[in-house]
From TrEMBL:
Protein family according to the UniProt entry: Belongs to the short-chain dehydrogenases/reductases (SDR) family.
InterPro entries documented for this protein: NAD(P)-bd_dom_sf, Sc_DH/Rdtase_CS, SDR_fam, SDR_family_member_7
Organism ancestry: Eukaryota, Metazoa, Chordata, Craniata, Vertebrata
Protein name: DHRS7 reductase
Entries under Gene3D superfamilies matching the protein: NAD(P)-binding Rossmann-like Domain (3.40.50.720)
UniProt superkingdom: Eukaryota
Parts of the chain that traverse the membrane: none
Keyword Nucleus: no
Keywords from the named record: Oxidoreductase
Gene designation: Dhrs7
UniProt GO MF annotations: oxidoreductase activity
Amino acid sequence: LEISNLSEKDILVLRLDLTDRSSHEAATNSVLKYFGKIDVLVNNGGRSQRSLFVDTNLDVYSAIMELNYLGTISLTKHVLNHMIQRKKGKIVTVSSVMGIMGAPLASGYCASKHALQGFFNSLRTELTDYPEISIINICPGPVQSKIIQNVFTENLAKSIENSGDQSHKMPTDRCVRLTLVSTANDLKEAWISDHPYLAVCYLWQYAPTWAWWLMNKMGKKRIQNFKSGVVSLFLSPPLAYSA
């Protein structure tokens, strides 16, 4: 309101629980009743993970998929019905670079993001009769947020004790700006990350054998740090660098 021409009537805030799928249709209808249309849906809800698979209860994986995957596609389904009627709209889903690679201590999170990538890439092919409905996948690397403070651990009742320094991550406003640029230009997929994380994405895409070797080296060190209680960057020196 302070930096735009918007007024109070141009903003509607609704409480929404992605895991309460029975409420998504009513929430969608509330927005449609207030504004008359939905131009853009940004799916940006989810939680990450910090635990080893062998130590993690299966109900944690169920909760991750319920929130990150099923909750997202549930809300998408109700909004998409409206966009199909209008034959117009944009569905922007915040996935992750973990949706295109694997990483230790985040197997459930990676699985949920891989699921989103597969779903929305498939959905895009089902909407060829609606060329003005855009399916846009955003894959950020590390971004400054509270995602680490709220990660899943090996059981649902346990929270993480030390979230570590977040200053090395991409500032939130830069990630948002690049997401908006990607949305305005109808990019099917955008990797939004600084190096060295972005370099690893390209390596994973074009030289997967080298990527697996590198990930094994980095993963072993990261797991050692995790077990000893040391909070480390995903890429540690000498592999970490700035550009």
